[in-house]
Amino acid sequence: MEMLIRRGFLWQSFEIYGGMAGFIDYAPLGNNLRRKIENIWREFFVIGERVAEIDTPLIGVEEVFIASGHATSFVDTAIECQKCGRVYRADHYVKEKLNLEVDASIDAIKEVMEVYELKCECGGNFGEPFPMNLMFSTKIGAGKGKLGYLRPETAQGIFVAFRRLSNYFRDKLPFGVAQIGRAFRNEISPRQGVIRLREFNQAELEFFVHPAEKKHPKFVELEKDTLTLVDKFDKTHRITLKEAVEKGIIANEVLAYFIGKTRRFLLSIGINDDKLRFRQHKDDEKAHYATDCWDAEALMSYGWIEIVGIADRTNYDLSRHANFSKVDMSVFIPYSAPVVVKKKKAIPKMSALGPVFKAKAKKIAEALEKVEVNSDEIEVEVDGEKIKLGKEFYTIQEVEEEVSGERIVPHVIEPSFGLDRITYTVLEHSFDKDIVEGEERKVLRLKRKVAPIEVAVLPLLSREPFTIKALEIVDLLRKSGFYTDYDDSGSIGRRYRRFDEIGTPFCITVDHQTFEDETVTIRDRDTTKQVRVKISELERVLKDLIRSDRSIEEFGEIFR
Amino acid sequence: MEMLIRRGFLWQSFEIYGGMAGFIDYAPLGNNLRRKIENIWREFFVIGERVAEIDTPLIGVEEVFIASGHATSFVDTAIECQKCGRVYRADHYVKEKLNLEVDASIDAIKEVMEVYELKCECGGNFGEPFPMNLMFSTKIGAGKGKLGYLRPETAQGIFVAFRRLSNYFRDKLPFGVAQIGRAFRNEISPRQGVIRLREFNQAELEFFVHPAEKKHPKFVELEKDTLTLVDKFDKTHRITLKEAVEKGIIANEVLAYFIGKTRRFLLSIGINDDKLRFRQHKDDEKAHYATDCWDAEALMSYGWIEIVGIADRTNYDLSRHANFSKVDMSVFIPYSAPVVVKKKKAIPKMSALGPVFKAKAKKIAEALEKVEVNSDEIEVEVDGEKIKLGKEFYTIQEVEEEVSGERIVPHVIEPSFGLDRITYTVLEHSFDKDIVEGEERKVLRLKRKVAPIEVAVLPLLSREPFTIKALEIVDLLRKSGFYTDYDDSGSIGRRYRRFDEIGTPFCITVDHQTFEDETVTIRDRDTTKQVRVKISELERVLKDLIRSDRSIEEFGEIFR
To answer: What CATH number does the domain containing B495 carry?
Structure first.
């Protein structure tokens, strides 16, 4: 962490005003790293699939979060000291002070407080525990305005626009919609550095499927991947995805596909497979809407930490929004061929209707003809009035009808990525020390494609003409789109170490020979080996190196 | 606009709950377009320069915006109808109803309201005009919590972190820091669609320079560019940047550099040079902190609209934050060689100090030796006590001192881009109609590199094996990172038109010959010409085409 701050990966926000827990700045290197991880996520989960990406507002109107349930259920229990005024998240405080895992409900907290006579760190007494909603609220517009919330997840912006999105995909399932961006959680008293943030970055994919067809067309591409699963009974399996689905450990193929895809993505950005597992939620841990849920967990200095959640959210969200907005969220699925269905229809008896209902009889008869008969009692609505009709008013006839399809509300499988934790995991898993020329060096073994600075240009001596030539090369590489840095202070060895520490994969050195034959050296971070290439070839060679895992030996003779 | 909504560029947010003025969704195509524009901005203004990008929180603590002045000055005057309760932005309402340009101050509004007996649209009377702060506010944490605001510009996140950023660049000016992200403005009653948003996207660059050296090392690269400037006296010039600086129309070279760079960026993403001008702020229009400010304005259906602001913000922000946070924001600038400076020093007279100050005399003498003498009266501080000393306590001696540099608070030149307006301008400037095969078609002539869908794959006939082959190619191209779509419904001509309408530069068609020789056709959107290429060559050819302006004729023989 000291290195990350010193070298410009992460900083505490508003530091000059004393800082604020739960907020961090992505400093230059951290920003580049996270942006690159986002772009690779986009390649994996958007561009490479039948998935569209959208970008919806961070502020949402109240109605969205009433329907989603967040306005009522997205709460933690808080306790406030009556002496010093400090507020704590109750379950965390109980865990910390009493080492007790406690249910976060108000009643459970109350009981623990009484039994253990819980006090504040200052010695003061706590007041009654109270629920705190974890959404940041704000007011939109002037005057009384309108209540709004900062979104607690990007997902709701997708569900709310589902009607339009389904049209965009011509109502053809399966399709996915992704969103990358900020989300917010007004934590009561966040502590764990970058792990528990009030403002964080998510990449979420909502993959909409037919409820009866939880298959993925590309599952075959990764079904043989072997990975570590911890099921809901805490049993660990080293198993292929195919087996996991066949044995019913993972509930369906779509979930399994995204578990596999998530693993491949995480490995590709440099997360260590030995420190990665997928853990199934226990039955009492799952969100109320989820039928099956798996967390990708990474082993970090904090222990095993959730970095991705992959849940089958069923049709919970779409159904809720349909109910609250009165907008139909179903999709019409045509059958491959029309199906003939037998239905019971009511044939009105005008001779019975006429005398009883007089002028209304005709309208009632029309309404009757449209009714499908499922029970003995029929109710029709005429001019806003509901009328119950006994068997005396109609006869029943069985008819055959051609049905061309059905309307269904899709289910959604959601892989939800915590980009901040992922970025931090990549840094932890990349951190390494080794011995070079008898001296210990710190090296960040980042994958080349996520390195925040891709190439450093160093004049062997910090004077002209070395510096001028090096700066010309810097300009050239920057114009070609490489994240390029320049450093002319200190010995060349010390400068190499500096770039090793921030994970820069390649250092270019301008030396005496440069002025003889227009060549420079390229040094590889991991092997510390060097080759010599022409300046005119530099752009092509670097592009090849950064986009691949090719060795520098393929581009010249190792001379050191 | 109808097309943008229908085809999936932009949607109103929260539509199913009635929508909310000032919020839009970036739908799949609009999202891709804006993301691509952002990436090109990053290439121009970050990667290509000595500029770092950071990403700081959207929620800021109150202190930041007290120092920046937003807490007090970022206000509009509002009027509320006492009958129907509607609230309007006063100056906009006066302009709309009375066609009067009025100063937005409360007094000016009051006067106009009285003179013209201004009424609400509903006929009701307005109450007293009142100021409304345009920042969204929220509460951080539980209990009383802490007041926070959603940032009104990304810039403050940079100024607040200046101390760390300057260290990152080893205190060597000039350097730049950029930020791309959301900003918020709680408009009273926004109307103009995508032009006036409550939640918008900015790309801002703060370029820190020595106040006495407002030069840019790369100005020479674009000083010969000719552009349209409208100066603060409303006079229009067609002039090179070099001339504009020499004649004093643009205040300094750094401003001119970024005006030129901004123009090159805007042209590269497809904004029309004939519909682009740079307009200087009039003296009464400038922000209080700016010494010179230029807006890039684009001609749109709304008239000339500001899309970029380029201002010399001087050291206003850094000085304010230094004052409010008590953190030094200056940078030490070493001279190229030490300078000898003459200074007056006070030599204490112990014989006079001893009797008067007794035990304190020694400490006073030590303090005196450190003082630089500028006036007749000297004040020293000893143990927190301030003591004035007359001439009787010291003699004055002139000494020579070597000074190795000076501390300065950098000035900042800020190009600030409104990405939403820019995205919309690109769409307007790209929209075109022409006649193809005797029929009018609508075509979005987007630059290839910003097209939201880069390539569409179409089976000539919508049945196997055409569809299967086409879907194989879709999968291949998606894995290679191309934004790829597939369409098998309707005649091939109609499908081409569909992709012309959303600006897709290339359509691939799988036809009968595909099954004979593994080739497909590539159709160019602008010329509607076609060439035939091998499927195995497709990735390379498309990459070359999309990254350049090369003609498809270079890749095969035109057959249609």
So the answer is: 3.40.50.800
Task: Find the CB nearest A64 among B17, B24, B52.
Answer: B17
B83 and B147 inside one domain: no
pLDDT one-digit tens code per residue, B142-163? 878 899 999 999 999 999 999 9
A363/chain B closest Cα distance in angstroms: 33
Q: What confidence tens digit (pLDDT) does each residue in B285-320 have? A: 777 777 899 999 999 998 999 999 999 999 999 999
Tell me the count of A-B CB pairs closer than 8 A: 215
Question: Please, are residues B288 and B313 in contact by the beta-carbon 8 Å criterion?
Answer: no
Question: Of B13, B140, B188, which is closest to A20 when you measure between CB atoms?
Answer: B140
pLDDT score for B176: 98
Q: What is the token pair recorded at A304?
A: 């095993």
B292 and B182 fall within a common domain: yes
Antiparallel, parallel or unpaired: β A431-436 and A87-89: unpaired
Could you tell me how many helices (H) and strands (E) chain A has, helices first?
Answer: 18, 28
Residues B490 and B398 in one domain: no
Residue with tokens 């998240």: A89
| Cα distance between residue A433 and residue A436, in whole Å | 10
B422-479 pLDDT, tens digit per residue, is: 999 999 999 999 998 888 999 999 999 999 999 999 999 999 999 999 999 999 999 9
Asked whether residue B351 falls in the same domain as residue B489, the answer is: no
What CA–CA distance (Å, rounded) separates B181 from B201?
Answer: 5
Between B379 and B30, the more confident residue is B30
A15 half-sphere exposure, CB direction, 13 A CA radius: 18
Instruction: Give which of B10, B16, B50, B321 to mutate to test A binding, by max A Cβ within 10 Å.
Output: B16
Residue A426 lies in a domain: no
Residue A551 domain boundaries: 453-559
- Structural domain count, chain B: 4
Residue B446 included in any domain: no
C-alpha span between A207 and A410 (Å, rounded): 9
pLDDT tens readout for residues A144-160:
889 999 999 999 999 99
Choose the closest CB to A56 out of B25, B48, B59. Answer: B25
Strands B75-80 and B87-89 come out as antiparallel
| Contact call for A15 and B160, based on CB within 8 A | yes
Q: How far is B98 from chain A (nearest CA, A)?
A: 22
Is B48 close to A17, i.e. CB distance below 8 A? no
Residue B536 and residue B514 share a domain: yes
Say what the ipTM of the complex is. 0.91
The answer to whether the CB atoms of A47 and B136 lie below 8 A apart is no
- Residue A319: is it exposed, middle or buried by C-beta count within 10 angstroms (0-12/13-18/19+)? middle
Q: What is the domain-level CATH number for residue B19?
A: 3.30.930.10
Whether residues B56 and B205 fall in one domain: yes
Q: Is the peptide bond before B410 cis (omega within 30 degrees of 0)?
A: no
- pLDDT of A319 > 90? The answer is yes
- Identify from B12, B24, B55 which residue to disrupt to test chain A contact, counting A C-beta atoms within 10 A and taking the largest count: B55
Specify if A326 maps to a domain: no
Whether A259 and A199 share a structural domain = yes
Same domain, yes or no: A494 and A510: yes
Q: What is the pLDDT of residues B233-248, one digit of tens each?
A: 999 999 999 999 999 9
Q: Do A80 and B48 touch (CB under 8 A)?
A: no
